[in-house]
Amino acid sequence: MKVLFQSRKTLFTAPGGDTTQILKTKEYLEKSGVTVDISLELTPDVSAYDIIHVFNLMRPQELYLQVKNAKKYGKKVALSTIYGPYEEYEKKARGGILQFINKFLSITQIEYLKVIARAVLNFEFSKGTFIYLLNGHKRLQRKIIKMVDVFLPNSHSEMKRVADDFNLEQYNYVAVANAVDINKFDYNKVDIDEEFEKYRDCVLCVSRIEGRKNQLNIVRACKDLPYKFVFIGKAGANFHKYHELCKKEANENMFFLGQIEHEKLPQFYKLAKVHILASWMETPGLSSLEAGVMRCNVVATKKGDTEDYFENYAYYCEPDDLNSIKEAVVKAYNKAFDEKFHDRIINNYTWEETAKQTLEGYKSII
User: Fold this and answer.
1) Is residue 122 scored above 60 in pLDDT?
2) 3-state secondary structure at position 358
3) C-beta separation of 207 from 278 below 8 A
C-alpha cells in the first residue's frame, strides 16, 4: 500500500501536536509495510498513491484543494479530523478588542477573520486562501466532508462533535488514538542530567505559550504555591506579548525555558511530580500522555476529549476558574501516582496501536 500524507503549509515551520501525530503515524505505518510520503503542496501529482490521507479540518483553506486534487485523480481520501473549535476561548478569554468582537460572531465567522489575520500578519496566503475567502469557513468544511471516504478522529467524542456540527447521519469512521512513544518515554531508561536536577519535583507544562493553552491563568492561579513551575515551549505566532505577560506575572519559582530539544523532554517528565494543561480545548494533549507514561500526575482541562483518554486518572480543572486550577494542582501534587494510569496508556495509546487503527481505516475504503 502506498499512502500520501498531506497537511498545512506550516506543519514544520510552526510545529504542533499534528506534526508529531503525522511523523509518528508515518514511522509506525512504515514498520507495518506501508509506504508513506508527506507533501505540503496543494495540487501535487498523486497518481502513484492508493490513499491520500489529509489532516486537520480546522484548516480548510489548504485541505480543500488537497482533497479536491485527490478526487481529480480518482483517489480515496482519509481525514484525520483534529477537530477542536476554540469558540469558548475566543469569546471568553481571547482578550482585547478581538474578544469583544468575537462575542457577536459565530465560531465560523471568528475562524474566517483569523485566516484573514494570518494572511496579513504572517503572510500565509495561497490559492487556497482565496477560495476560502469566497466560500467561507463552514461551507468549505462541508465541501471537504462530502469528499471524505473515511474519518479518522482521535476519539469517539471527537467524531460525535464533527457529526453534530455538520448534521452527519451516515459516515464511515475509525477512532484512531493519539499516542506516546513508549521507547523514548521509558521511565526506567531515562537518566537525569545534573543541570536539570534543580527542577526536581516541579509542576511541568509542555506546550506552545499562547492564550488557548492558558499558561497565564496557571501563573495567576498558582503563584502563591510553594512549588517550582517549569514551562517548556516557545511563544505561538502572534502571542509574544502574551508570553512576556506570563513571565512578568510569574514568581521566582516559575521558569520559562523556551523550546528545548525533544530528546531532553523525557528528563523533565521524570523530574516532575505534576504535568498541567489547563487549556480551553484538548484532543487530548500529547504532552499529557507523555507525562502520564512517565509517571507524572496529570492536571487536564475537561474541555474536549481528555476524559475519553484519562477517565478518572487525571485531575480536572476549568480553564477560566483560578481556584479550580489551583485546587487541581495541589491535589495532584500531594497524591501518589497510580500505576494503573501508566498501564492504561501502555495498553491503549502507543503508536503501534495508532498504526493498527489507521490501517483498519484504510482497509475499510480499499
Assistant:
1) no
2) helix
3) no
Under 8 Å between Cβ of 79 and 103:
no
User: Do the beta carbons of residue 13 and residue 19 sit within 8 Å?
Assistant: no
Domains of the chain with bracketed CATH: 2-85+127-179+350-363 (3.40.50.2000), 187-348 (3.40.50.2000)
Euclidean distance between CA atoms 322 and 80, whole angstroms: 33
Q: What pLDDT shows up at residue 91? A: 64
- What pLDDT score was predicted for residue 283? 84
Q: What are the tens digits of pLDDT across the range 31-40?
A: 999 999 999 9
Distance of CA 84 to CAs 6, 54, 177, Å? 19, 16, 15
Nine-digit cell string for 94: 481571547
Strands (E), the chain: 2-6, 35-39, 51-55, 76-80, 150-151, 203-206, 229-232, 254-258, 274-277, 297-301, 315-317
Residue 37 and residue 2: Cα distance in Å, rounded?
Answer: 8
Report how far residue 193's alpha carbon sits from residue 182's, in angstroms, rounded to the nearest whole number: 20
Could you tell me if 154 and 148 are in contact, meaning their C-beta atoms sit under 8 angstroms apart? no
Work out the pLDDT band at 87, boundaries 50, 70, 90: low
pTM score? 0.86
Nearest to 362 by CA among 76, 46, 69: 76
